[in-house]
Each structure stands twice: as C-alpha cells, then as structure tokens.
Design brief:
about 270 residues; alpha/beta; TIM Barrel
C-alpha cells in the first residue's frame, strides 16, 4: 500500500505544505545516497523523490544531467535503485519514496517484474517522465495492482482538456511543472502557477505539488501557497555535485543544511 496518499492527507490535515526532495541515486557516488536520504528526512522532508539515472534524461537541465552522468560512471541502475530503497526501509518504514525516471529501464525490466520488485522493496510510486498517459495503461495496471502510485506531470503548456484526462489516470499527487523548460530553469511566474493550480483544483481532488525552478525558501513558499507541496531538486543535486570528493556524511549534512530553511519557510504559510 502506497505511503504517498496517507502522507499528503496528513500534511493537509495538519495545515502544512509537503516538502518533497529529489536526489539522483548514486550521485556523486553510491555510498552517498542512503545517508543523504536519512538526513533529508531528519531535516523535515515528507517525501523522497529518488532519481533513477539514465543516459538521456531529456527533461533535466545541466545540473541534473551531470548528476545522471556521475551516477552512471558507477554502473547505477534501476535494479540497484530498488535495492537502495530496500536498504532505506531497514530503518525507515514511514517516509514515502517515489522513483522518478524514464521509460526505457522500466520497459527493459518488464512492467510486472518492476512492480513486483518495487513493492517488495518498499517503493511507493513511480513518475515516468517520458511515458504519456495514452501509452501508460499497461504499466498503470501493474503499478496499481501492487498498490503503487502512478505520478504524472502537468506542464504550463498542457491544455485544460488534456489535463482533465491526465488527472483521471494519476494517483498519489499531480506534479505540476511550474515553468516552461527543463529542471533548474529560472523565470518562475508565480501568478501563472496560481492560475493553473486553480484550474486543476476544479478537475481533481489529488494533491497538487509544484516543482522545477524552486531555489530557496521564498520560491518554495511562493509556489506552495496555492498548492499542497513544493518539490526541490536541482538546488540539492548541485550541492552534491560540488562535494563529489567529500565524505558521504559531509554531503548528507550539507544537503540537510540547504533544505532546512525551505522547511522553515513552508511552515510559515
């Protein structure tokens, strides 16, 4: 049973915004990821979004593309990412973990095999960046049969008609992309985000979490004011890349230090 929906129901009931943190498994080296995950939870992160490294991460900006490259040097894979979640679950059985990646590794593994392995490891959901809803039916069935959430992206350019179809298939939450472009882009238009979220509220009861372009507490507060949560990725990944030669514990502490003011800022809403 996915932990994502209960987690977001809890944050809603408590009147606070969810904080979702994205890191790439195996970046800057495999031993750094697990302590970073635990440090993020200790710093107030509600959901961990774990990037599955891929050779052609088309939705990512330079910062996260480099993270995928650093990870792949160590032969990190979808299977090793699932194994990492199982290791995380040995000491944390409550924090939802969402895998974010691309269709090719999942298709190669096989939808059923993936869903079975993910459920057994304690994965709570999957966001497949390049798999449109029209082609996601078979995977969706496998995920939901195992109690896993299937997360979909909605962009500023998504039409109202298409958004209405996407939310019908989605579960867990809707990931709203706050700006046009790739991860880490600038030019955040808060008013446009608010307008789009208002429209989405009329289409679905699913929580709406906003990502792309969130760089600090102020930008997180700005987008989360009209949503249910903020997703922070490039800020954390950039720091991890800068500390590629540091000890794993030092990397984890530095990432936690970055996320703490964002948690504080969101709690002020």
């Amino acid at each position: 049973m996915t932990r994502i929906a209960p987690c977001l129901e809890k944050t809603r009931a408590e009147g606070r915004k969810a904080l979702i943190a994205y890191v790439v498994n195996g970046d800057p080296y495999p031993e750094a990821t697990l302590p970073t995950m635990h440090a993020l939870v200790d710093a107030g992160v509600d959901i961990i979004e774990l990037g599955v490294p891929f050779s052609d991460p088309m939705a990512e900006g330079p910062t996260i593309q480099l993270a995928h490259e650093r990870s792949l040097v160590h032969k990190t894979s979808l299977r090793s990412t699932i194994e990492l979640v199982a290791e995380f679950r040995k000491t944390n059985t409550e924090t939802p973990v969402l895998l974010m990646g691309y269709a090719n590794p999942v298709e190669r593994m096989g939808y059923e095999a993936f869903a079975v392995a993910a459920e057994q490891a304690g994965v709570d959901g999957l966001l497949t960046v390049d798999l449109p809803p029209e082609e996601a039916g078979e995977l969706d069935e496998e995920l939901k049969s195992r109690g896993l959430s299937n997360i979909f992206l909605i962009a500023p350019t998504t039409t109202d008609e298409r958004a209405a179809e996407v939310v019908k298939l989605g579960s867990g939450f809707i990931y709203y992309v706050s700006l046009k472009g790739v991860t880490g882009s600038g030019n955040l238009d808060v008013d446009a985000v608010a307008e789009k979220l208002t429209k989405l509220r009329q289409m679905t009861d699913l929580p709406l979490c906003v990502g792309f372009g969130i760089k600090d507490a102020e930008s997180a507060k700005a987008v989360a004011a009209n949503g249910d949560g903020a997703i922070v990725g490039s800020l954390l990944v950039n720091k991890m890349g800068q500390m590629a030669d540091a000890k794993a514990e030092e990397i984890a502490a530095a990432v936690a230090e970055l996320i703490t003011p964002i948690r504080i800022g969101l709690d002020e809403l």
